[in-house]
Amino acid sequence: MMQVGIVGGGIAGLYTSLLLKQQGHSVAVFESNSRVGGRIYTHYFKTSGKGHDAFFEAGAMRIPLSPLHSCVFDMVRYLNEHDLAGDKIEFIPYVLQHPNNKIYLQGRVWDATDKSLGASMGLPEGFHGKTARELLFQVMSPWIDLLSENLERGLIAVLRYDHMTFRQYLRDIAEWPDEVIDFVELVMSQTSQYDQGFTDLVLQTMHFANPEWVTVKGGLTCITDAAAKALGPSSVFRNAPVTEIHELPDGKLELVIEGIAPHKRLFDKIILALPPAAIQNIRVRPKWSFMKERAIQAIHEGPLYKMGLHFQTRFWEQTASPCFGGQTQTDLRIRWIVYPSNDLGSSDTGCLMVYAGMTDALRWSWTTRQQRVKLALEDLNTFFRHQGVDVYSQFIEAFDVHWPSEVGGGNTMYLPGQFTRFHDVMKQPEGNIYFAGEHISRHHTWVAGGIESAHQTVEQLLGGMPLPVLDFSAVD
Q1: Which helix (H) or strand (E) holds 352?
Q2: Which residue from 160, 206, 229, 472 has the highest number of Cβ atoms inside 10 Å of its Cβ?
C-alpha cells in the first residue's frame, strides 16, 4: 500500500483520491480553500429562507449527454451507491436554449433564431439568411464529424492547424471577412476568444453540438461534496495550502502544509491536481525540465467572470415571452444572461446568472463588488425594461467570482501551438511527482476533462496498468 498525497481538492484531485483508495492505497487531499470543488462552485444564497432554489453556478454549470462525458455519470453512480445516508445526486435536464430566448444587439431585442440578423448587422450578402450558430457549424461540422467518428484520428487532423488562431483559420481557410468573424464571435462566444488556438475552439464547439444536457439538482457542488464525504474527514484537509515540496534522498516526498496547524507529511508519491498558476505559486518545489517549467508558466487560462443575482420572483418566466431556461446573448457589459434550469415554474425566489469571458471578463476587474452589482443591474434593466420588468424592485442580493483573481485562475484555453508544445509535456511525471487537471486533458473547461486526466494519472502512477472507471458495484 502506497501513501499518496494529492494537492488540490477540485474534481481531478477528488476523483484521483477515490480511484487510488479503491485500489487499496492511502490518500490525503490538501485543499487550500475552505471548500472543496475548485472550479465546481455552487454559491447558495442564505437569506431567502427557502433554500433550494436560491443558488447559482459560479463555476461549472452543465454536462452534455455524450459518451465523452460518461465518466461524470459513472462517478455519480459510484457516489450514490457509496452514500448510505440516502442523499442521492440527481441529474435534471439543463435547457441550453429555449424557444423564447432573445439576443440583444445594437439597442434592439432580436429572436435568437432570426435569420435576418446578419443582414441587419451589415454582413456581406453571401452570409445573409443564416443565424450565427448556423454559420459557425457550417465551418465546424466537418471537424466535429471527424472527431465524433474517431477522436484520436480526428485530433491528429485538427492539430495540423494548431499553429493558427481560430480567427486566422476563419479568415484564411474558410475565407470569412472580418465582420462575419466578429459577428459570429459576438453571438456565439466571448470577445477575443477567436484569437485563441484553433484546436481548443474546435474541441469546445464539438461539445456544444450535443442536443441534450443535464445539470445537478441542488447544484454541481453536490458532486464534489459527496466525493469528499466518501473519502472521509481523515483523508480530506481544507484550509491546508501546500507551500513546499521536498524530494528526500530515499525517494519519498515531504509536503509542508500551512494553515491553522502547520505541519509536514511524508508520502511515497504525490499528485499535483492543480492548474498551472497554482503550481507556479508553490513557494518551494523541485525545478523540472525547461519545457515543463515553460508549460507551467505559459499555458493560457481564459479569464472568466460570473455573477449570480437573487430576485424575489422568477420574473423572466412570467413575461409575455417567458424563458424557462436557456440564455440571452448581448453586446452589453454582462454579455450573457443565463436563465436557471432548476425549479422551472416555481413560485419561490430565483437567481439569474450573468457572465463574461476573455476580454469581457477582464473589464469587470477594475472596480468594487458594489459597483459591479450596480453595473449588472443597469444592464439587466436595459434588457428587461422592454418586457415591462423593473429589476431594481425585484433585487435581493448578489455574489460574484472573478476567476483570474482566484488562486487557480480561469479555465484552460490554449493559445496557438500550445496543444502541440505543452499537452504531452505537462502530462509527464517528474520522478514520484505526478500531474492531473483539465488543462492536460483533451476536454478543457469541462468536468469530464478533470476526471479523464485524473484517471490517466492514476494509471501512470500504478505503472501503466489499465484501470476501469470507479466501480460503483464494489463499495466499501
Answers
A1: strand 350-357
A2: 206
Say which residue the cell 453512480 belongs to. 77
Taking the C-alpha atoms of residue 302 and residue 39, their distance in angstroms, rounded to an integer, is 13
Report the alpha-carbon angle 180-182-183, nearest 5: 65
| CA atoms of 476 and 474, how far apart (whole Å) | 7
- Would you say 61 is a known binding-site residue? yes
**Do the annotations mark residue 355 as ligand-binding?**
yes
SS3 327: strand
Class of domain 96-112+304-409: alpha beta
Residue carrying C-alpha cell 462552485: 41
Q: How far apart are CA 63 and CA 314, in angstroms?
A: 24
Topology, domain 3-38+220-300+414-461: FAD/NAD(P)-binding domain (3.50.50)
- Residues counted in the chain: 476
242 is in an annotated binding site: yes
The answer to pTM > 0.90 is yes
Residue 62 annotated in ligand binding: yes
Place of cell 505559486: 281
- What is the topology classification, in CATH, of domain 131-208? Guanine Nucleotide Dissociation Inhibitor; domain 1 (1.10.405)
Please give the Cα distance from 131 to 116 (Å, whole number): 8
- pLDDT tens, 241-289? 999 999 999 999 999 999 877 899 999 999 999 999 999 999 999 999 9
| Distance (Å, whole) CA 361 – CA 367 | 12
Tens digit of pLDDT for each residue in 368-420? 999 999 999 999 999 999 899 999 999 999 999 999 888 777 889 999 999 99
Q: Is 261 annotated as a binding residue?
A: no
Dist CA 134 CA 184 (whole Å): 10
Instruction: Please report, for residues 214, 242, 427, the alpha-carbon distance to residue 262 in angstroms, rounded to integers and kept in the order given.
Output: 41, 10, 30
- Name the grid cell of 124: 456581406
Alpha-carbon dihedral angle through residues 136, 140, 145, 150, given to the nearest 10 degrees: -140
